[in-house]
UniProtKB/TrEMBL annotation:
Name recorded for this polypeptide: Ribonuclease PH
Record has tRNA-binding as a keyword: yes
Subunit composition and interactions: Homohexameric ring arranged as a trimer of dimers.
Family, as annotated: Belongs to the RNase PH family.
Signal peptide residues on this chain, from the entry's feature table: none
Catalytic activity: tRNA(n+1) + phosphate = tRNA(n) + a ribonucleoside 5'-diphosphate
Organism: Jannaschia rubra
Length: 237
């Protein structure tokens, strides 16, 4: 029995509310159970120096957690004067994932920054940030197209992410914190809407896992990504 009472292949409840901030070109609040992430997409008519005069655009991301997103207060990273290695790793993952769903030539020489701020954390924050970040990015691109600034849609496909793991000897989908903290194997699967892999992060935590178990995790990830893509489509409809 999972702590939440969910079936092994059951996602947490997913809601995505769009247009939640006034100024960002695209924004949403994604809720995956008790994990809540605010995602905003901001447009700049410039690119990093290495892309100047190439005709290509850029999508990047930043990630952070509010001090009381967790059960005990965390110190703000700004107070420490630097980002943690975990934060840097996660925001690079978000950026790489979202760029995989974009035709940067169609975007043109402009940059979109997707900010993902964790309001409340209960496991799977990086996955929620990627899934919600795609929605914010989609809305920003829609605004560009409506204004006539771009004529070809740069969005190639949906991008979403879900966690899967081995908990109490069973393969389970969409781990919450009680499961994540006790899982023998924990994995994050980033995929396109048509099922292609973008990035896979999986590791054993004190117990190895077999090829057959990995195949179970992949099958669960396929189901989870389909559920998330359906939620994305409903949000932007």
């Amino acid at each position: 029995m999972r702590p939440s009472g969910r079936a092994l292949d059951q996602m947490r409840d997913i809601t995505i509310d769009v247009g939640v901030t006034r100024h960002a070109e695209g924004s949403c609040m994604i809720r995956c159970g008790d994990t809540h992430v605010l995602c905003t997409a901001s447009l700049e008519e410039r690119v990093p120096p290495f892309l100047r005069n190439t005709g290509q655009g850029w999508v990047t991301a930043e990630y952070g957690m509010l001090p009381r997103a967790t059960t005990t207060r965390m110190r703000r990273e700004a107070q420490a004067g630097k980002q943690s290695g975990r934060t840097q790793e996660i925001q690079r993952l978000i950026g790489r994932s979202l760029r995989a769903g974009i035709d940067r030539n169609a975007l043109g020489e402009r940059q979109i920054t997707v900010d993902c701020d964790v309001i409340q954390a209960d496991g799977g924050t990086r996955c929620a940030a990627i899934t919600g970040g795609w929605v914010a990015l989609r809305l920003a691109l829609d605004k560009l197209m409506k204004a006539g600034d771009i004529v070809t849609d740069p969005m190639v496909d949906h991008v979403a992410a879900v966690s899967c793991g081995i908990y109490a000897g069973q393969a389970v989908l969409d781990l919450d914190y009680p499961e994540d903290s006790e899982a023998g194997t924990d994995g994050n699967f980033v995929m396109t809407g048509d099922g292609r892999m973008i990035e896979l992060q999986a590791s054993a935590e004190g117990a190895t896992f077999s090829r057959d178990q990995f195949a179970e995790l992949m099958a669960l990830a396929d189901k989870g990504i389909a559920d998330l893509v359906a939620a994305q489509k409903a949000a932007i409809a």
